[in-house]
Amino acid sequence: MTSPNQTNRPVLRVQINQIDYSLEVPGPFDNSNLPKVPVLRIYGPSSIRKKTCLHIHQVYPYFFVEYTGSLSARHVRRYVARLTHSLNHAIAISFKRTTQARPQYIRAIILVKGIHFYGFHSSYAPFLKVYVVDPGLVSRIVTLLQSGSVMSTRFCTYESHLSYTLQFLSDFGLYGCGWIELEKVFQRGADEDEEGPVFRRSSSFRQSRMPLEVDAQAYHILNRHALVARHHHHELRIPALPTPNEPLVLSVRELWDDERRRRAARGLPPSPELPVDLSSSSRGSGGEWVAEARWWEEIQKRIENERHQEPPAIDGKEGWEKWAMTTFQSVEALWEDSYKIWKPEGTSNTNDERQLSNADANELPDDSTDDVDIDMTILSSQEMTKNVQMEEEAWANMMDQEHNDAYDDEEYNDDDFLDENPVNLDEHKDQVNEDPFKGSPINTEPVFPNLTRMSSRSSSGSSTPPERLSPSPSHRKGISQTKNNIVTHSQAHNESASSSPIKRTFTYHSQHILKYTPNANGFEYARQPPSVSDLLASLYMHNIPSKIYRPPYYSKEIDAPDRPREYAGLVYHLKGGKGIKNLPAWEPIGSEIWNSLVEAGDAQGWEYAGHPPSVKSVRAWLKSDEGKMLTGGQTVQQRSQIEGPTQANVYNIKTTPVDTSSVSRERHDMTVFSLEVFAPSRAGKLPDSDEDALAAVFYSFRETEERAYKSGIFAVESPQFSAHQIRDFAIEKVDSELDLINAVIDIVLDLDPDIVVGWDVQLSSWGYFSKRAAIYGLEVSELISRATLSSRRSGSLQWEIRKTSTFKAAGRHVLNVWRIMRSEQNLNTYTFENVVFNVLRQRTPWYSSSTLTNWYRGGRPTQLGMLFRHFASRTSMVLDILKSVDIITKTAEFARVFGVDFFSVISRGSQFKVESFMFRIAKPESFVFISPSKADVGKQNAAECMPLIMEPQSAFYTSPVVVLDFQSLYPSIMIAYNYCYSTCLGRIIDFQGRNKFGVTDLERPPGLLEKLRDHVQVAANGIMYVKPEVRKGLLGRMLVELLETRVMVKQAMKGVKEDKALRRILDARQLGLKYIANVTYGYTSATFSGRMPAVEIADSIVQSGRETLEKAIMLIDSTPKWGAKVVYGDTDSVFIYLHGKTKEQAFRIGQDIADAITALNPPPIKLKFEKVYLPCVLMAKKRYVGYKYESIDETEPAFDAKGIETVRRDGVPAQQKMTETCLKILFRTQDLSKVKDYCCRSWSKLLGNRASVQDFIFAKEVRMGTYSDEIPPPPGAAVAARRTLLDPHHEPQYGERVPYVISRGPPDTRLVDRAMEPLDLLNNPHASLDAEYYISRVLIPPLERIFNLVGANVRQWYEEMPKLKPAGEQPVSPSKKKAGPEAVERFNIDEHFGSSLCLTCGSYAPEGICDVCRMDTRATMAGVLNRINVVEKRFMETRKVCASCAQIPGSEEIRCESLDCPWLFARRKSESKLNTLDTLKDLIHDLELDALEDEEAELNEVS
Boundaries of each DNA polymerase zeta catalytic subunit N-terminal domain copy (predicted)? Predict the structure, then answer.
């Protein structure tokens, strides 16, 4: 055999769609005599267009422990033997197994060399690499080593927190959904007549159902040769060796290669053109930190102290380093010699040194009990057993913690840290040539050195206005300043004899006009009025606002309060009415100016007045909304829903189909199989898998996105159902439930999908199907698997129930679509019907289990058709949801970018993905990652630094507020200042006498600081880091690679706007790159669930960001020419108030500020202009709202809210609608009277029981089993508990959002007791919403938080409004004045009273019709008949809409009860009104009798 060559072409390529492992009896490919060995299994399509199962042999899980003993070969071998025997013995005892059978849990232990990643180290350190047989035992072995029970040593482990599959993918340059290239494979069970390439036969038996099953050994993987070792950090070099220009991560490099191929195919230059930051070469250093001078004094003292210390002796390290593999090279340590590429350095070596080269790594040392060194007391103690169990559970549940980290917006995954346009590669700046507010460039020298002590000296120069602010450049030299009056020298000299005050105050052009004076005999010259440009230019000099914005006011004088209102220490004077009387008092500035303009005796002239409006224009105005409002003639139809904002295309519907035919990259779609089941239930409850048998199973199969779905139905023949009854569906009937189960299993094996999905896999779909099969002794998970199920870790069942599903299938991904939608979509509820509407833009009905069961058992073909259509559409809709949200494509691209397998993208957290990226850069450089225990993580120092989050100056701002944002602040700081684990020199001042660094103590060799004194930079929190010329930090290099690649991908998206399929792929890639950059800081700061945290690095990043923001704020506030004031700052953004400026001026000033602050900071830190709010409301930290302009050319603003009720999901829809509508009225008109009218209308609907119940439904997450018994549970949990008592199978899943409403109840009733399900409220005619609770506790508080800032008292509006609560909507029939039997069923007292208003005119009428209307019988009858017609028409319209949605005949009863559809509530309302028609018909009958009596009376009078 020959060593593999990099130029070898692969004989087979397999895509890594799914990967797992199994423990197998070793065969000829394993080179081992152990009882069991791990074998990796990879499933996916292959280069020969066959689905393949690939078995990878000779890959073992491993971890490292540091070796501190003698480095002679004899001592190393003896130590390795003792450690191996002791570990095997300790593991057996921890399992309470006998040790006489010579257990073998350790594959091998070898000596390697590596570089500590945790802290700056510049030399190799010896490590022992421990290969483990069973990946599931790694956590147990690590716990034993950390406990001190093995060899009386508490070992510190390294890289044990990396999973087995991630180690394999990283070591061999592989990634999820990428391709593994194999030099040689051996085929299992090959047929002689099989078509296609013929591979060597394997002696192993087939274990999978895949068409092609092959074996390969680790050294047959050619991807490994794309990785090149980088020996950069094992010695101290200044400057350090240059890093390669190409991306270091292979998956990212492939993205660049893919783009080059695409550009070459289009005839473009291969290298993508990326934007360049032209200002990076002229940037400042950022200035000193607040305490930097003190830190440097301490560094100098430490250098002086270390000079007296002797350097540590070097014990022959150069000898052992030659004959030891690096951690990167040790991947091939267990391979056969003929396949090893690594050779010891040098030409000759002694036999003793050769033994260090690990040539005999495959030979396990002889088992001898004399070498066993374990502490039986510790091992046999109950505490040790408990610790092992707790650690294994912690490892099993680590995914749960990671999953929570991935969606913790507050800690990591916040877009505040990474903007849409990444760092260091920004678009060209907009150059504004004529900017009257932009002065000369800010001098960077005097600003930042003394910025921390900035006072009046920090202002940029004197108070003389800059040259560009002068009205005319030609007059600039002639301006002088005398007190407050500016005079040109020429005018002061020529007009000194004149006493006119105007000549001493303003500077005008020297042109004159003639002015007539009555008392004189002629004309005299008067000064020409100033031009518009002169006036605008002088506003800044006289501190006059460029624009006066109207403050909030009451347009109706009656609404204005009588006295001022005080709130939060401020007094508000709100004015009412319109006209000049509400203008502020005139404050003349320089009365002599006015007197000179209008002198006594001047002639007063006349001017032509405008024509009065024509009759036509008056009539048009009367028909307008304003005319109707002012004349009282407006008739607005009151809707039951709360009025809310109506936007164009509110659901962002896109109808253009996606063309996937032009996707250039090699495309292999994953096949998806969707399944839903139907089982008739008992007594109106949900189906019980232990009792209720399956009646039908529905499936849909998607092979590619271009092809139509393949759907089918299996149904059990029964007396109630026969397949020939339904003609619209192709139903395959079976005789029994067992036959149905077998038929489904057969179709799954026949179609062989890569992914099996269901809407709710846990409780229905596959979960219910699997439980029914288990009754017959069938294990569906094994029967539909592509291979035998791999061993699963114990303790992960609860995590699977809460986060994914317990149903598994080897070789196939199982996706619980409901869980996925919870993380993909921001919705109030995650019912199937609501997700379908928001994702697919269509309505689908929801039927109760009892309705579906009645349809099935009724046997009517029409109802059976409705039943089968309902479930058949669900299977296809689930596939449509996955396609619309692009789950498969996005997850596959994420897997490629992150370097993890497909399912880990969904199930694992952010730390796991960051580690994958870091590990791929660190491995070729022989860095070794520490794996701290939970106890070590808990012993870290507490974080000392916090981001700057200012308390905003809460107010309603009518002038522009500019928002500037530091682009990717935390990633930029890590790049600019070289913050990383591998560059950190530790603390300047020791903590309790130790150089405490994260989870360990950092040992810094004496004399190192003196060597690096000119190459050290100090962070803002007093931590030292080496500069990039010594070593570029791995985190910084990783972030640069991520952000540059993201810019490249976004640039590529601009060039393929017409190719929607390719844009989707590119968009998924850039989102994945953005995600990793966002969460990198969070990886260093994670505490409770941290896998390799370093709180000192996190503090360095946070404090540097805080001081960067503080410097920017001080500069903005201290620069007079901008006239700006910072009113809020949050982590990486500032809100700047520009009083009296126009929108155009705000854009220019904001860009000027951003450029000035960017120039003061080192690249790639950049302050970016983000948006202008005009107007806006700042309420509290992270809570603000306003009209947003992102471009100076925008004319229509966008409503932008953060942290308030319009974007929160813990309220009700009415709360969101009212808050947003009130804010829009305030922003557009500043008219508080309009806001008040809208609020009163909305409250009146609720008080009058005319509001839609849908607008008042709460939907909050419920986590059953986590609530205390000492206090009442939340209302949603109480509703769910009552529901569960009635039906145990109706318990909500963990994290499910349960809908409920608050109904009226007796006084002093607890809120939790008045919570009920919305359907129960609709079905109960005696129940109604608690209007007082909703108004006073839900609707008013968010409005108060906003309008208190303008001085309006919203609660007073409600208290003063007339509250006309109608006694009842049931009209009174004159012929039925006495209470009948139905009065007994009236539970509430107000139900015994009918309406006291006239049905036609609305006047007081105790008997339904007033006397006036009764006199005009014909007109009254016409009005009542019209009312009957309206009710019937509305009823028919709602039925027609619901029938078309449900696809049922109009004669069928509509049983849909979807709470997510507004037509349910409209239909129920029309049905309730329909019940009043009998009374109206009785009233018509009475009126007809009255009319007949009147006619008879008239006839009698005539006769």
Answer: 12-57
